Structure formats: C-alpha cells, structure tokens
Amino acid sequence: MSLVNTRIVNQIAILEIDSPPVNALSAQLRSEMIAALQALADQSQLQAIVLYCAGSTFICGADIREFDGEPLAPHLPELISHLERSTVPVIALLHGHVLGGGLEVAAACHYRVALKSTNIGLPEVGLGVVPGAGGCQRMMRLVGVTNAVKLATSGRAVKVTDDNYARLCEHLIDSQDDLLQQGLAWVQRRLAENSLPIKPTSELALDSAAQEIDWQQFKKQVQRSAKSNPAPMQLLQQLARDWALPVAQGEKNTRKLFLQLRQSDAAKALRHAFFAEKKMQPGRSQQAFTVSKVAVIGAGTMGSAIAICFADGGFKVTLLEQSQQALERGLKRIEDEYQRSCERGRINQKQLQQRLNLIQGSCDYSSISEVDLVIEAAFESLEVKKTIFKRLDSVCKEGAILATNTSYLDINVIAQATSRPESVVGMHFFSPANIMKLLEIVKADKTSDAVLEQMQQLAKKLRKQAVTVGVCFGFAANRIYTRYGREVQQMLLEGASIEMIDQAMREFGMAMGPLAVQDLSGIDIGHNARSQYPHPSYDPGYFKVSAALVAAGRLGRKSGSGFYDHSQRTACLDPQVAQIIAQVAQELKVEKTEFSLQSIAQRALLAMISEAIQVLEQGIVQQKEAIDLIWLHGYGFPRAKGGPMFMAQQWGIAQLQQQFSALREKQGDKIWPRLNLAKYLE
Ligand code: COA
Q1: What residues does each domain of the chain span?
Q2: Which of 121, 214, 549, 676 is deepest in the core (most CB within 10 A)?
Q3: C-alpha 22 – ligand 1 centre gap (Å)
C-alpha cells in the first residue's frame, strides 16, 4: 500500500502522507516522499508543494523500530535536502505531534502552518540519541539558539503557541478548523500576493543574542536532569561547540553523534522502556467509564497525596477521616502541596483554586454513599481495614468500586469483610502518590473483570503507569523491593559499609541509595509490615539490621537517626551503627566478603532479577515488561538501564546462571532458588 499520495489542485501539489498510526518516518515513507518530490520536479506549472498528514498527527518522528538494525537508505538527511532545495516553496501543515524527525522535516520546509493545538518537540535524547538530520541547526535559525538547544537537550514537547516557539510557524489556525482547507487558502493568498518566496531555513541568520549564551549554566541544568543517559550532555557539548557553524557542517556532526549513540546500551534500554510502556497500555475498552465521584479514606500522607492525584485528574474527591482534627491536618497538607506546586510554576493560581474546590473533607461515612469509587488509605493493619470495608459495604451504593491502597496485606481477606468481593480491588500507589507514576492494580481472587477494566481506564486518566498484579506478600513491587532490601542488609552483615552501598546504587543510577531511602521513609514502617508475617526460617539474617536499629530507637530521619545520623543539616555516618551491624553479624557468624561498588550493585540486581522471575513464574505478573515498568516508575531505577529484566536479558542466561549458582553455594537454594531463566530471557 502506498504511504504517500500526490494530487494537484490549482497548481499546488498536496503530498498527503498516510502511514498509521502516527505517520512515523519509516524507510518506505522516506523513499516514497523522495520519489514524490522527484516526480514533482518535472511539473513546470507548479507553484507550491503542501505537506499534509492524514490521521491524528503530523509525522511523529523516526520509526523507532528501525533503530535496532543498520540504518536503512534512503536516510532522513536525503529527504530533508530534497525539501529544502525544492524549486517551488514547500509548506508543511502541522497538527497533532510534530516530533523528532517530524520536526526536522517541518523545519526543512520553507513555511509552516499549524493548528493551535499542535505539539512540537525533539524527544530524541529521551531515546538515547540526538536529532540526526539537522533539526537542531534549523530550529536554531527558526526559534533562536537558546530555545532550540532547550528543546533538543530536554526532549520535552511544547505547544506550538508557546511564546518561545510561536515564530516557528507563519500562520496558526484554530484547532476546530479544517487544517487542509485553511492551510491551502493561506498558501493561495500568499501566492496571490506574490509573498511566498523560497526560503531555505539553512540560509536564515542566527540570532545575535546567541553570542551571550552562558553555556556553563546550560551544562549545569542538563547535568541535573541527565543522570545515566549520556545523550543530552553529549548533544549540549556539541551544540556549545558548533552552534555558529553553517547548517551543513553542524548537521554532519550531530548526524555522526546520532549514528554513534543509536547502538549504545543506553539507547537500547531507552527504546526498550518506550516499547514496554506501549505494550502495557490498556487497549480500547468496550466498557463505558463510570467513575466520577471518588472518596479517599484516611487523610494521612498517603491519603492526602491520593486525593491530590484525583483532583489533578479532574475528579471530585471526598476525603474522609475519623476526627475533625485529623481531617484538617490532611486538608492543610493538600493546600500546602498545591501552594508549592504553584510557587514552582507547575500550576497557576486559577488551577490551584479549581483543584482545591474539587476536594472536600468529611467525618461522616454517609457522605460517601453515592461515590463511584472509594480508596482506603488508612493505617496498615488487617483489623483496621476489615472494619473499614465492612462499613463501606453497608454505606456505599451498589456497583461502587471498593479499593484498598494496602502495600502488603491480603486483599482476599479484606474482600471477605464485604458482601461484594467482586467489587474489591487493590489500588497501590507509590510514595509520593501525586508524583510517582506507578500504580499497581491488584486483582484479588474475586475481583471482577469489569472492575479491573475500570481501573485500567482510570489509571490512564490519572496519567499513571498501571501494572496489573496478583495477591501475594507485597504484591509484585514491594515483594521484589523487599528482596532487594534483604540483599542490601545481607551485604551489610558481610562487611559492605553503609556509605559504599548507597554510593554503589547511586552510581548505578538509582535516584537514592537504599539505606538513605530507608531513613527517609522510616525504618519502622517496613519492620512493622514484616512483623505481621513469620520470618523465613532459612534466612537467619532477614532484616536483622533493621530490627536492631528499630530496637535502638533509630527509626530514620523522623527520630533524628537511622542508618545515618540526622542531627545536623546534612546526614552523616555514625560509628554506632557500624557497631550495631558488626554485633548482629558476629551473633549470626556471617562470613565476610570483599566488595567493590560494582559487585554491590550487581548483587542487588541479581536479587531483584531472582525475585522477579519467581513473581513471573507464580503468575503474580503476566508480562516481564511489567517488572521493568515497576522499577522505572515506582522506585527510580535509571531509565537508561531499562529495568532489571532488560539488564538480565543483556547479561544473558550463561552469566546469570554462573552468578546465581555462586550465590546459591554460599546462601542456599531457598534464598537463591533454581530458576527457569530460559522461559523469560530467550
Ligand atoms: N516509531 C515506531 N512506532 C511508534 C512511534 C515511532 N516513533 N511512535 C509511536 N509508535 C507506535 C506505538 O508503539 C504504538 O504502537 P502499538 O499500537 O502497536 O502499541 C502506536 O504507534 C501508537 O502510539 P501511542 O503512543 O499509543 O499513541 P498516542 O496517540 O498515545 O501518542 C505520540 C502519540 C506520537 C505522542 C507517541 O506515540 C510518541 O511520543 N511517540 C514517539 C515519538 C518520538 O519519540 N519520536 C522521535 C523518534 S527519534
């Protein structure tokens, strides 16, 4: 099927691209576009060429699937060159998402006309690569050097109406209007006025303000956001060096960088993350979405943040607490959080007020009788939750979804406290709930498919990355995280220092070291959760360090000390903790191990992978991609490393087998069980 159709109307050629779903620039599309442009070169009467895309968007970028193989001819720069060198003016009509190669194509056209709703962006760095067809160089000439560099190094999309980018387009059209009709009318007007000369972007001058750019300041900003993905910094360094070069030379240099980066480990991992997210998106639902009014039970840190999530998604929320005092504390916490968002420029004053207006407090269960969904975020105790669900069962309308935000407790038991277990589901948010993208939807034995489908749709509306999991201790996420935590504790007993462990995981790319995280969230939280279950008898050191710290009153930041001492402004090491650890290790007669930063990170990852495979094997999670998304969106795993399952795949079965059997030899096959690696890694 042909992807490009040409028709000529009043001496204007319309090149219509139709390559669903998102008009990605595949080799076939590049080739057909070049052929269409070549065919038009013979048309002597032609006055202009209009580039228009069918469907919901303009070209959304390169076809990312092609990046895994060798670059396929014809390459994008060839198409770009045909557009820019056209002997009649070329006008791009933009709508939807004009991203990556799509923006490079648009920038190489002589004019751009867009619907006001259009988004533009150069997201390549988010995929570990850089714009490879002169997009940076042409955008510098169209919107100014600073704005172009920001767009390309941040990878973020902006509205075409954004003050800094509005000059990209010569004409903007109201979004409800017909783009093709209005765009053609604009071209005809300009032709009639004789004001549509050929205007190659490469020949435009750079803005004089570019001389003043503080590149060091730019580097600091990019450094902060780049973490383990080298692409943004490499691109910035190149642009800082090359910005004043003619387009052809600058383009050649960034193309070289693009070709170099496209097969890098980071780029492969980032592509994996992109396609894992797409794979886990819910398909189109046959079911109407019925949730509009929501109640949150419990106005503590979690409950308040969940209420914010829903208000951000436009839902009406009733926040329910036992006492007026607790309720007021929760409402104040919400107001403060919105105030901070406003100060940071994330929302404006009007949005702040709108969102606050969506949240109302109550201490009366009868006020939630008509809500469509309840999320219980009360104290983590089975008895407390059973009592709440009994109450919900008696007050909530028929068909209401009753969700619990429990992190560890058995949702089947909670569901049994109601007469409608089919309506009970887990909705496990990650802290802070209004920031972290992950949402575990926990399917209990009797949860109905209809409820699960509503949850999937809801997650999309809340802009969360949902993974559906089954019931077990800690579900999928906290169960694997607990295994990671267990290994960290074991390494402490074997002689790895606190400092080394946190440094190893930070250097690996985790947002924070695991022991600093423990201090932040409270060592007693996990300790209390674990105390509701029998400890594994085959693992004598199981979280014994945490237990000893809790016994010593070291609960983390909130008590002034935990793994670190927090009495000063910056956390520092405390020799007392080393003593506590040494004492536990001595009592348990733990053999010492030599550690390096690399071996610590490697062992932590092996623990994650081992537990992840068991979670898959037991059917708690169906797809291995879900494991990676859990880590990327729930625990700050570096996106440029793809996730534990992606790393396992990269290491390969032979290497994993070898590492697992060495650990099994030391710690036994209960802790490092034999796994069917081939089933998940081939
Ligand atoms: N290459 C190949 N496939 C792509 C693609 C690309 N650049 N962009 C999207 N797709 C695929 C998706 O994988 C999905 O496939 P599936 O239906 O088999 O799962 C399909 O197109 C629809 O994409 P989706 O993201 O679900 O649509 P959307 O309407 O929610 O979002 C975009 C559209 C364009 C905003 C989004 O897809 C996107 O950001 N794409 C990547 C753009 C990009 O990074 N371009 C630069 C490449 S260097």
Answers
A1: 4-263, 293-469, 477-619+652-681
A2: 549
A3: 6
Longest Cα–Cα distance of the chain, Å, equals: 92
The residue whose CB lies within 8 Å of the most ligand 1 atoms, and thus the one to mutate among 278, 284, 461, 623, is 278
DSSP string of 185-216? HHHHHHHHTT------GGGSPPPGGGGG--HH
Q: Using the structure block, give the residue that is written with the tokens 């949850």.
A: 455
Contact 554, 562 (CB under 8 A): yes
Give pLDDT tens digits for 305-334.
999 999 999 999 999 999 999 999 999 999
| Ligand 1 midpoint to CA 17 (Å) | 16
List b or e across 70-100, with b for residues whose CB sees 16 or more CB atoms inside 10 angstroms: eeeeebbbebbbbbbebebbbbbbbbbbbbb
Which residues make Cβ contacts (< 8 Å) with residue 346, sequence separation at least 6? none
Ramachandran angles phi, psi of 663, nearest 5°: -70, -35
Ligand 1 pocket by Cβ (under 6 Å)? 21-22, 24, 57, 60-65, 97, 99-100, 123-124, 127, 278, 281
Q: What is the pLDDT of residues 252-305, one digit of tens each?
A: 999 999 999 999 999 999 999 999 999 998 877 788 999 999 999 999 999 999
pLDDT tens digit sequence for 103-134 = 999 999 999 999 999 999 999 999 999 999 99
Q: Outline where DSSP puts E strands in 155-287.
A: 158-159, 171-173
477 C-alpha vs ligand 1 centroid, how far in Å? 27
Distance 74 CA to ligand 1 centre (A): 22
52 residue type, one letter:
Y
Considering the segment(s) 293-469 as one domain, its CATH architecture is 3-Layer(aba) Sandwich (3.40)
Structural fold of domain 477-619+652-681: N-(1-d-carboxylethyl)-l-norvaline Dehydrogenase; domain 2 (1.10.1040)
Which ligand 1 atom is at minimum distance from the Cα of 67? 48
The CA distances from residue 272 to 309, 518, 650, in Å, are 28, 29, 12
